[in-house]
Every structure is written in structure tokens, then in C-alpha cells.
Design a protein that fits this description.
There is one protein chain. The strands form three sheets. A seven-stranded mixed beta sheet has the order 2-1-3-4-5-6-7, sandwiched between helices. It has two domains: 3-169, Rossmann fold; 199-381 and 418-473, pyruvate-formate lyase- activating enzyme (Alpha-Beta Horseshoe), CATH 3.80.30.20. The protein is built from 18 helices and 15 strands. The N and C termini lie far apart (50 Å). Helix 9 (262-274) runs parallel beside helix 10. It is α/β, with parallel strands linked by helices and 476 residues long.
Amino acid sequence: MNVLFLVPPETVSLESSVPKALEGGKGYYPKLGLMYVAAWYERATGNRPGFIDCPPEGVGQQELLHRVRELRPDVVAMSIMTFNLLDALETARVLKRETPGLKICLGGPHVNLYPQETLDLPEVDFVVYGEGEKIFTRLMQALEKGEHGAEELKTINGLGFMQDGVAVVNTPETELLDLNELPFPARHLVDVTRYQHIIKEGRQFFTIQATRGCPAACTFCDIRKTKFRERSPENVVAEIEQLIEMGLDDLFFVDDTITINKKFVMRLSELIVERGLKFHFKISARVDTVTPELLAALKRAGCYRIHFGIESATERHLSYLEKGQNREKIERACRWTREAGIGFFAYMMIGIPHETRAEMMQTVDFTKRLKPDYAQFSICTPYPKTELYFRMLQEGIVPRDYWQEFAENPSADFKIRFWNKDFTEEELRRLQDECHARFYRSPTYLMKQLTQLKSWSDFTAKARMGTKILAQRMGV
């Protein structure tokens, strides 16, 4: 079985709640989930799959066709979010026209939400939903058997397939993987130098994941109240050592909230120091999961930035979003982080249902007082099948289930909607630009950045970020 793991070219991706000035401007992140599936498949079968990550490689449709002709895959596997579903379907159509008999398998966050709807699309032959490592490999092993494996497909939980023209979706897989059993992601299948981030600290950036799941109840998140699991600290450090040997010295732990288990993070930090591992890294955390002791340990281990999901300065909106935090906790965690010598990125939100313009500006002013290195003001967006989306449907803020309509009939003219009854989409976009300009043009912020410059590359990275934001504000 000749398998190709593919990240499709970006052609018709949906617009996000992130400012247009920053879309695609930060660099490219590796598709770690797809690399995990590739690694499990390779270890289980001994077959070396292909892997093409089109956006960072600069591969368009024509070059992709050329490379597929050379590789001649039997199955193309893509992991997709709702935002790039259209890209995946267009790529599937092009590849199937070129290679009759080619099978397309889709997995990832969108498929987890809409397995049946995705399988019903004419371009799709298989769907894998849930944790895909074992499921995808079992699918490939069944296909290797030809007709003898047809009955086996019915026994694979988390799999959807076509049978005699009928879409069949098996029951979900409820047994979660032991994360220590996972092979390290198949980074050897890609050119690691293609992945960059403009506000990194080291020479070469890459991602790593130590945990899965998040028990928090944030209503806008699609992994709300999911089981939290971590790898052993020793297992994570072994992967870090491998990454350092590959020349990677700037790592981003893409865990949703790695600091849920403080003992785990403390032990991981201790091991990094004990083994003398020299690298830079950043993490994401909730403000109610950090302590001065934890922050000091992270700093010793090489942590240079924490991404905090703060969202709002207004208590009623924090309550509406079920953040489980308040202004006091936010201010305390940010102060502790600064005192530990770690920078932080503040993720903020505007346009929350019932929020006024004055409250949005209060959030900007609150953010300025927190003194983050960077801040991003996203527009509150009800993403598919989140608690926020269901609540907005119930309240009548969202008149119909338009995400369901898109999943059933994906169309290039689809537009993501922001829902605040007092503002139009255009008004929210202008307010978003105003928030960024108000934050980044603050004399206090500009002076802080000038005093913290470490190098010319640091200056150029921050200048590029600022230029994008200000250019968007001026309509350039």
C-alpha cells in the first residue's frame, strides 16, 4: 500500500476571526497530528509513507500533481479543520481526475465533528474520527488484504467508509491511547527548516506535544471538558533530546493547557535542567494554573513565553464564556509571569454577545495594564458544535444551524459570521483594527519593546508584526 500524507495547498480557506493583517503572517506550524498518524503507520507496517506539506513548501496544484505522478499513491490522507475543508475537497477532486482509483481519507477536527456529513461528500472515500493513529493504520492493513479485508472494515471503531454506494460510519472509538505508546511524530518525512515563526527566540522552530485534552469549560472551545492526559516527563525529554540533535532549538508546546498538572510540569522542567538541555520554548496556560514556583522552574528550563487565554476585562463576559477566572486571577498570574522573567502573549476577545463598544475598549485598556509582549484581539465567533454556538442558537442570536449546512454542502461563498446583535460584521472588523492599533501604538508599549530588544533579528521580527497591524489599520 502506497500512502501519501498531504497538507493541501491553500486556495479557498475560510476567513478566520484573526485580523486579516495577521492571517498567515506568523509563519507555518507543522501538522503534528498528521505526523503522529504517519509515525504510527510507519512503525506498525514498516512502510515509509510520503508526506507533502504544501503551504510551507510553496507547492501549488500543478507541482502537487507532478509529485503525485511520481509517488503514485494508492491512498491520500489529509487531516483537516473546518477552515481548510474546501482546500482539501478541491485537492481531492484534482487528484482523483489525475489518478483514477485513488482513495481519499480525511480525518482531523472537522471530521471529528461531522464524520457522516464528510463521508457523504463525493470526493471522500474514508473518514477517520477520534484519535486517528491506530484507526488509520488498521484501515490500511485491511485494504492491503483486498477483498478479504472488506468485512474487517466493519469492525474498526472510528472509521467511516463507502460500501456498495452507501456511506457507513462505525461506532466511535472510546478507548483513549496511552500517550507513552505513541512514537515520536514523523518529522523525518519533512524538511524541518520550512517551518518558521516570526516571533521565535532560537534559530529553528518546531512544535511538540506533551498532553492531550483540557478539563476547562470555556464555551467557545471544541475540546471543552475533555479528559486530560500527559506523557511521562522522561518520554517528553527523550523527544526534546532528539529534536535538539536535529538542530531544533525553539520549541512550542502546542498543548491546550500543559500546566493542568503542575507536578508534571515541575518534573519536566527539572529533567531539562538536570540533563543540561539548552533550548528555548513556549507554552500555553490558563492564568489559574500557574504559581511563582512553577514559573521559576519553567524559566530555569528555558521557557521564554506563555500564551494566556484571557479574553475579556469584564466579569460578566468572563462568566458568559465560563472561563472560570476573574480579573484578580488574571492580574496576579501576569504579574507573577513578568516577575519570573517570562514574557507572555495575551489572547483577547471582542464582540462577545451583548458586549458594548465601551466594554471592548475597557478590554484593550486592561490588556495594556497587564503589559504583555503581544496581544491579539479576536472577534468572538461561534465555531461549530461548541457550547457557545449551541447557546447562541438557543438564544436566537444565531437563527439557524449554518455550520451544519456548510458541513453538508461546502461552498466557496460561505462566510464565517460574528454574532453581536448591536454590530455588523464590518463594524466589528473596524473595532478589531482599532483595538490592535490602540494597543500596539501605545507609547508605553513601544518603549517597552525598544528596551527589550535582544538582537537585530528580534527587532525585524517585531517590526514586521507591527507593520502588518498598522497597515491593516490604515487600509494598506
